[in-house]
Amino acid sequence: MSEISGDAGFPKLRKFFDRAEYLVRLEKVRAEMVARGMDLLIVSDPANIGWMSGYDGYSFYNHQCVVVSMDNEPVWFGRGIDLNGAKATTYMTDSALFAYPEEYVQRDLHPMEYLAREVIAGRHWEGLAVGVEMDSFYFSAASLTTLQKHLPKNSWVDATGLVNRQRAVKSETELRYMRIGGRILEKMYARILDLIEPGMRKNDLVAEIFATAIRGVDDFGGDYPSIVPLVPTGIEAATPHLTWDDSKFQRGAGTFFEIAGVYRRYHCPLSRTVYIGQPPQKFLNAEKAVIEGIEAGLEAAKPGNTCEDIATAFFSVMNRHGIQKGGRVGYPIGMSYPPDWGERTTSLRVGDKTVLEPGMTFHFMPGLWFEDWGLEITESIVITTTGSSCLCDVPRKLFVKN
Amino acid sequence: MSEISGDAGFPKLRKFFDRAEYLVRLEKVRAEMVARGMDLLIVSDPANIGWMSGYDGYSFYNHQCVVVSMDNEPVWFGRGIDLNGAKATTYMTDSALFAYPEEYVQRDLHPMEYLAREVIAGRHWEGLAVGVEMDSFYFSAASLTTLQKHLPKNSWVDATGLVNRQRAVKSETELRYMRIGGRILEKMYARILDLIEPGMRKNDLVAEIFATAIRGVDDFGGDYPSIVPLVPTGIEAATPHLTWDDSKFQRGAGTFFEIAGVYRRYHCPLSRTVYIGQPPQKFLNAEKAVIEGIEAGLEAAKPGNTCEDIATAFFSVMNRHGIQKGGRVGYPIGMSYPPDWGERTTSLRVGDKTVLEPGMTFHFMPGLWFEDWGLEITESIVITTTGSSCLCDVPRKLFVKN
């Protein structure tokens, strides 16, 4: 009985997209590599890895990547014990899967040394210009310095966002997955509105949110979100990223829910705010302003317009209502892994001149965080040929529970 | 009505440890900085940030850090909208909290440029030797190159694992949190064994696992795990990191559960395997070997022995049973954030001479992943003054459900 991690013939267990779709993606990435003068690309962002190769596993706490060259199949590179996972989920042939041994895991030996020697030098790719995702979570400072040390003849080019930007326009299959996420999210909000009441512990509601998300809808089981449910109440809602505790909901406070329905790693996020009791006038004023602002933003969300146009339309309504709101009001969405469900490329903000195209998807997310309270009413949208449509149908309003 | 993110007087909403405990931690870290010749330390790992400052929020998808100098309070540095979150959760005074503006979020401007100029140069820390966590997830290659570019007079020292290693020996409060995690985990396993049956969809069971984890135990609400439940069945169990899908459990296959109970970010992980139907002899043989191996490992888990001793004791039993098992059989645990619940310092493996001390906590995790099946039976343990004890009480066996 011998523990192994490399036998041939392990079956493909999961297939989220046809091989043809992966090949289209590969060609898009290669065209951009050529445009930016790269011969080779090391893809470290787990969502980029998944989008390029199909690889799906909770293994990104170890160094892993996909290496894209101009002629061969992309190479999946990861930890030995994950090799069967790569065989099960990627579209590539087994010969394109390359595992590093266990002595490179969390020791002085860095996996990028193994990549340098066994893959890049091993395939005679020394001297090439290599794109690396300089500001990806999972491409650490040591990843860069290790590669540079062991590959002195290669040159290094910043490829942050290169693959992410190719993901912007979604295919029909991707949109289908996101709409399933949207339907899951509708069930999550129905459950929240059913259950929330004074005296309920916050963690007990989050338990129901998670359970509903993962049960999914119809035959479609839900997947895990890249960001856990954010449910700040009262003064906690003056800042967006506090997680829940085991305190009880009380009358006379607002709670916003920043949550997503997820199917096969595709996210449909959406926020709503629930006030228990009679909302103060400031909540009602903010609700009115935000809803008008979203309507104005959605009017501006159409092909040919820019990301900035959505933000400007929203801000002009806010200004009319006397609410100072800066920063960005949204970001592109799609496939993702923790810790972020945004695509980390464009933003819906003043100055972002990215032209909107049919198939682009955004979380239009104008969160309002004031001195001691907050309100979030948001929409996930897809740009259509003539305008935009929402990916999820939850009434656009401040919910009031008495 | 003006959106803000910086008013004075925001209340401390959460306090997981006394200020005195944070000061002890700070002195331990400073002593290690001196020993390694660092004047300043930039802490990027969210668990290290939390352990040093108390900061707790799902905001680590943005650049953030804690800067430790030799005399002042540690500086929390993060995104503007998270400043109130820092006020709510850190033990420091508001003057130690420093936020970067929204134009540094996911644009060409890098937050580390702001840190360099406003914090490090602003406090006249140019010329100092700065420790950086070179191989932390959240200290990207661009974080390093940006700091180096804007602070040409500073020198840079690798501080990977420096803070992590100070976290190894747990305080009484930390152990209490981990034991609460263990009690939550006991409920999670009871729920799994209650529910699992042929025909149940895997995602529906994961929904119950999540819900039970977050409901918690008694008055203690559960927190989110840094790794989602891993529940591979049959051939999927030949690799450890595939996540669930919506297929149904069937008779005649084993499923291992790699899950954790979590309280206030402190994790108690533990794996068990459930076989539906009559287990083949190979499962029963592996069960027997692993249980004997764990017993041998636990015998070796005592102060004065080393991490290696636990691994060697385990492997010698495996060899006797004719099972080849390499790599590591465990890692230290405690506070963590996605994507990993290990402390990423020592390992239970041959060659690791770290001496065991009372209060150290490990996930003793000898996973077996074979050609087309796998088995995980593990324990989370704390080293005591005389030996070790388990943090969670789940029968140590292969569970069989007929």
From TrEMBL, chains A, B:
Source organism superkingdom? Bacteria
Q: Name one Pfam family in it.
A: Peptidase_M24
User: EC number(s) on record?
Assistant: 3.5.4.44
What organism is this sequence from? Answer: Paraburkholderia madseniana
- PANTHER family (UniProt xref): AMINOPEPTIDASE (PTHR46112), AMINOPEPTIDASE YPDF (PTHR46112:SF3)
Q: Where is the Peptidase M24 domain?
A: 177-384
Q: What Gene Ontology molecular-function terms does this entry list?
A: hydrolase activity
KW Hydrolase (keyword) present: yes
- List the InterPro entries hit by this protein, alphabetically: Creatin/AminoP/Spt16_N, Creatinase/aminopeptidase-like, Creatinase_N, Ectoine_EutD, Pept_M24, Peptidase_M24B
Tell me what this protein is called: Ectoine hydrolase DoeA
The top EC class, named as a word, is hydrolase
Creatinase N-terminal domain boundaries? 25-169
Which keywords does this Swiss-Prot/TrEMBL entry list?
Hydrolase
